[in-house]
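Researcher: Quick sanity check before group meeting.
Model: Go ahead. Protein one:
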Amino acid sequence: MSYYDNGNSGPLDDVFVKAAVEVKRFLPSLFNIKVLGEKGSGFRPRAAVQDFSTLKQECLSMGRLFEDPEFPPVDSSLFFSKRPDRYIEWKRPMEIADNPQLFVEGFSRFDVQQGELGDCWLLAAVANLTMDSNLFFQVVPEDQSFEENYAGIFHFRFWQYGRWVDVVIDDRLPTYRGELMYLRSAESNEFWSALLEKAYAKLHGSYEALKGGSTCEAMEDFTGGVTEMYQMEETPPNLFNILLKAFERNSLMGCSIEPDPNILEAETPQGLIRGHAYSITRVKYVEIEMPNRVGRIPLLRLRNPWGNEAEWNGPWSDQSPEWRFIPDHEKEELGLTFDMDGEFWMSFQDFTQYFTQLEICNLNPDSLTEDDLNAGKKKWEMSVFEGEWVRGVTAGGCRNFLETFWHNPQYRITLEYPDEDDDKCTVIVALMQKNRRAQRRMGAECLTIGFAIYSLENPARLPKPLDINFFKYNASVARSPAFINLREVTCRFKLPPGVYCIVPSTFDPNEEGEFLLRIFSENQNNMEENDEEVGIGEVDDRVLHPKGDNEHGDGDKVREEPEPDRNEDKVREFFKKLAGDDMEVDWMELKEILDFAMRKETRDKGFSKDVCRSMVAMLDVDHSGKLGFEEFRTLWNDIRKWRAVYKLYDKDDSGFLSAFELRQALNSAGYRLNNHILNILVHRYGTKDGMITFDDYIMCAVRLKTMIDIFRERDPDLTNTATFTMEEWIEKTLYS
């Protein structure tokens, strides 16, 4: 939308637009734009949320079927890299089949049949989801159908980077010659799986964005859990114990056998199917009573999702003689049956011999219901932090790049209590990069990511964040197995109780991206960012007491004060000349003074009007828009201090600071900042290459001083809390 005045002078001055932008920043709820997500999810949405209930009610009251403007039936919703090679029609289910239903006789793995899209990874996860009704209805809400109050609108819920989002869709589906092109059910009139796939495609921007992926990724989006993968040739010695604890915590577990490239889902002599996903439904030490021995044997119960006679035929299979040695009470507890239902038992030893891959999806603690906990299920303790790697600020690269590695985000974790059956603590670290699949249409692929863990022997004596000297002389105690270009890197560790620092990074420096760091542990863990508190610190002594070295002939050095600033008297005279009778200057007059005094620093380009306006606002107590000489002199002293700091770090006199140097420069100026603030400053004031000009550096310093002074006025007792009315907040933020 454009704003115009009475038509005589064209668009309004940009002051109006800038004011609107500032108000928008602080009053986001006044601006109505569309976004995925839901209200109260803990973050400011990029725009207004599509609310399922509201949209459905609007359609019912108007007697029309919903048409989603956010994911329309056009080619761009299908592909981002090419155009369809045939004519594709988008049809509603009643145009595809008679008597369409969301579910036909419930939901099962048989409802998941692949179409033309290469998203078998998604289908495997959907099939797993059908085996837990609580998890299933968390993703597929029950408040929708093709019968009661049908309005052509459906919704699905997915976990995305720490929060659940509600994705609304219409039920127009892509078809070719009257049949569904993509995911479908074995029942021609059942549509929950096709609609779920469409919602997932909308979440990521298009159907093509779903091409290629891992089952782990989708399982996490369906549960909010953390997935581990194990190859059987390199499993840890305590694997069965890991499986036992996973079962106690309701983890979803699956396994498979390396497929035969020449035969699709080939059957082995033992009755197992290659290239086929099995679910692990029970893990238990089972009592065994043999003539010469009494003891326990580790067993697993597996299920072939086909639910047919394709079952394991080795030891502990249905009707095998080994079951003679199991006491009746144990059989009863196991709920043992020998139906041809695709479910069977096998020993852990045979499991590790015949299966080649294992996946464990450890559930988010919130996924366990009261019934689960009452039934004796346990839950993981979890800590979550969001962060980002910003070029030149927090994108320091891996340990190979020691000079910048310490600039990466750092997280301190305290492990106090060891596991119940061990003297060490189980910790699962999961580093996930955000939004890369949705950005594929813009050419973004997954970054190569990993992490390192360091033990902190005397944490109270160490700087926050850990500096380059720490990493020079301390090796990591654990790390991700490799840096890899997957959405998530996950690894399980056994660590002694203590304090640790986790450093997530990309492999190369200056690769930008957002990430989510999650820590799962059996007992409580305390996690915090290993970073400075935001606030006022000490000004660098080199700025407060600038001194030069003057060497006598005998080699001794004496320190002398430098000459006073020769410009100061000239600036005072220039101020009086410009100020006029009222002895005050506005931002334009201030600009003239500063441009004259700091020609060298600004490379004769002068200061921008924005920084000059902000300088006036910083000291303009009565909001007159002008500064008197005393106010100006205070400002002048600040600017001289900031200039001296700038010269300390712009050693090559390039007129720029790198973003890595910005933190050190602002520290020397007396400001303590954390990575979040630094990232914002570089996003706001840095060049594309992460460089900071003198003008923008001054603006950073002005805004920091102003906002800290405003806050401290309301927080004289340094409680780190201040209260503002809405009017006061708008006034302070707009004028500064």
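Researcher: Fine. The other one?
Model: Protein two, sequence then structure:
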Amino acid sequence: MTTLLQSSAQAAGVDPADMHTALEHAATGGMSPVQALIESGAVDERQFTRHLAENLLWEWVETPQPDPADTAELKRLIPARFAVRHQVFPLGFAGQAQQNNRKLLLACHDPFDLTTKQAVARVSLLPVKWCLTPRSELLGAIQQLYGVGAETFDALIEARGDASADGHLRDEANVIDDEDEDASVVKFVNQIIREALAQKATDIHVEPQPDSLRIRYRIDGFLHEIPVPENIKSLQASVIARIKVMSKLDIAEKRLPQDGRINLMAEGQSIDVRVACIPSVEGESISLRLLGQERFTLDRLGLSPEHREIIEGLLAKPNGIVLVTGPTGSGKSTTLYTFLSQLNSVHRRIVTIEDPVENKLPGIVQIPVKSEIGLTFASGLRSILRGDPNVVMVGEIRDLETAEIAVRASLTGHLVFSTLHTNDALGGITRLIEMGVKPFLVSSSVRAFIAQRLVRCLCSACKSPSRYTREELVKLGFPEAKSKTLYHATPGGCQQCRGTGYAGRIALYEFAIMSNAMQALVSKRASEAEIMAQARKEGFTNIREYGLKKALEGITTLEEVARVTTDELS
């Protein structure tokens, strides 16, 4: 075994000293030499397993996928619990059943794991032909075939006796089993949340369908349906009841919408989960918003040097209003929290009123809106100003009353941050005036309007250069990008980006600063064209132009910029 490992590691470019260290670690740590070598980070897992398969005369499978025609039988021969526990994956069959020489093709990531081979020998009804595959690909294939939490689902069905003689499952109102921790709805729901956190999802949607229970994760702004165990519909009520219990909702109330919260600890990190439960014709649909305790720093915003200088200047102002505009889900709250974090110090009193409080910031007084008892943005802001604040953040300016109080606060020496729902930065001027705020008050109180959108970032591991035709650039709205070096998402992506070609998101910004010239135009009710012309003279760059710069830098694609800035096309 050692000779095979050393030969394969050498072929994969592993330093002999690293190999020796890994073998020693395996011997003292009670783990497999293959596992120790891969976890050491000294070897590329794909190259190593490929060379190891060649030395063993085994077939190497880079991306294990079962034959669709054999899926049902493969699941029966290798149940989910067994596949997850022993980390094996059924690929299909070799040979002819009629000639009694059919074999089960089974993939593993460690050919020297005797415990796994003995377990397979005990349960397999067919001779086994082994294949080798990278561990990361193996675990992804298991989840894809059986569904998230399938091993817990199987155990739950067995423990509760929910399988009838003919193989069909009966529905129950509530089958939460607190006595069997290893086979419970509790663990199944925890696995769904844990997998969402591992995939860096921001939302989980549990949606009843006529014949199934659909679960989707929102990752980088896009929804992805995840595989779920077969017959999960039978435990729909139990899964929903468990989430409602966790979020302290009334499990008996199924006719009205409900809102709740869950506080979780995952890998030492506190996760705040906002839960929204709404009734539908197929049952209750639940959405979970995952809010981690993030660190809000200017570096994370991805600002250009020019924009960062503008922001630092605005934060240094003793008073005035800074408004962040954009649609829902464009990252406005993150930007505002970053501003507050930069200003947060023992010498400043910062108070916010939000609907709801998404992230708890230490050292800052945060007030949640409760309209049912009369605590609105306007009434809350009025009370905040009597509490001697230096900095105030209002979650959103929705009406004239809130806008007027915010203006009065800025004119009396407070620095105010808030949001508006407009398509662009300069549109914020029109929006405030249409609300009923006097133009001279807008010009004298507002320091800047900031518009933003979120776009997906290209995966740095698999992005590739792209050439666009003139027609494609015109269609996207970027004819000026002709002959420029651009990048696109590689179809199928890679392991690092989960096959999407994108990893993470970045904000695109536009800044409209209220200079003296801009203030004069707003005060005399100048047209939008005149205001835009003046802004251009002062170096204004709109979101599409900013996005094009990011595309030329290889950070995102023209398609992403066009997707979120279509309204900006002139």
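Researcher: One line on it for the slide.
Model: The two ends are 67 Å apart (CA to CA).
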